[in-house]
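Problem 12. The chain below contains 306 residues. Write out its predicted structure in token notation.
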Amino acid sequence: MADTPDAERGTVAGENGVTPESQAPAADATAGSLAQGLLHRARRDDDDPAKRWAYRPLVLLVMSLAVGYHALVLLVHNLPGKGLSRDLHTFFNEKLQASNYMRATGNTQSWAMFAPNPHRSNMFMKVLVKDKDGEVWDMAHDMYGRREYPYLFYSRMGKINRRLIEEKGYRRHYAAWVCRDWEMTHGGESPDEIQFVKMWTQVPPPQKVYPYMGYDPMKLHLNQREEESIRCSTSYHGQLPNEIRERLELPPANTGRFRDVSVRTWWDLQQAKQRQAERDERMERARAEDDASVPEAVGEVEGAKE
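Solution.
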């Protein structure tokens, strides 16, 4: 085989069932990359290079309308809700269901921080922990006095902290996380409660800060108001389960201390409906059997002798 010429090797290989070298490009095109396939693969029989569009006119029309509708709704949705564009917002929301479309597609946005309706106040949510001895600790989750202006890096904790002000439903879940985190880092001792204190400062109007080329946010009057207190012992998932305590080498807690959440998924609801249907069917079957087993009453013949 070592002295066999190249031509003879190709012939012998073909006779032995191996693809000859002359057909190697076609084999590479079949099993190779997309580029090789586009270059060497045979053209489809139904391929029409002279055809301008890949889809039928009706499909092109529907897709063009969908793209145009999406672009217009996205543009109008991001315009200010007041002023000259107010009537445009009303028309799109009432006639074209723009707000419903934006919510359904997950494209809702808020640009209230920009003109003409910028924020008039800086708001923060102070998170306090009251331990079992009654001492109150500031968890330093808010950004008040803890950020240098201007800043280059975005703080995700600051974003979450602001959401606690706007969405009250987040607070109980957030407090449960603070309870568990405190318990993990303090030898397994759970705090008594989590306190939320809202803080805000009024942003001075532009005409007052123009002469001074800005203002110091720490010199503004700070307003504070206690919003809510949530106890760790009664909150769902506000305690560490024993399997987590064991993993962290913490002493086990009393049985029943952990308050779990009963989660019912769509599968659980479907199974519950199926079980209820089976129970109803068994009751109907049992009722039918009872009715069939009762003997019919025999009427007495008038005038019969005993």
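Discussion. Residues 1-31 have pLDDT under 50 and may be disordered. Students who got a different answer should revisit the alignment rule from Section 12.3.
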